[in-house]
Design a protein that fits this description.
Layout: E1 2-9, E2 19-23, E3 27-34, H1 37-49, E4 54-57, H2 63-73, E5 78-81, H3 95-98
Parallel strand pairs: 1-3, 1-4, 4-5
Antiparallel strand pairs: 2-3
Helix pairs in contact: 1-2
Length: about 100
């Protein structure tokens, strides 16, 4: 079974509160909301420690934010990202402009 995570960034998100798990026969997906890139780094590290092999980041993580997650997991999980040039949930800005 693939143990994966989806980390999304949103104003007011608390990674201790805003999370959930969906489990199918082939995938266990943990979704975690964070408010900053730094919280995203901590959530990614937590997921790697829990055996997560794949982390997907929402489009709110810009190039810099995606790089920070990639560096934080040190190759212990594959990191992918949904891409928006600007994110509709972040006042049509890139996370790189905000965080």
């Amino acid at each position: 079974m693939l143990n994966a995570a989806f980390i999304f960034i949103a104003p007011g998100a608390d990674p201790k509160v805003h999370r959930g798990v969906v489990e199918t026969p082939g995938v266990r997906l943990t979704s975690i909301g964070v408010e900053t890139y730094e919280q995203g780094v901590e959530a990614a590290k937590e997921m790697v420690e829990a055996g997560c092999g794949a982390i997907e980041l929402c489009g709110g993580f810009g190039i810099r934010g995606t790089y920070m997650i990639e560096q934080a997991v040190l190759g212990k999980a594959r990191v992918g990202a949904v891409r928006f040039d600007i994110h509709p949930g972040l006042d049509n800005k890139s996370g790189d402009d905000l965080f």
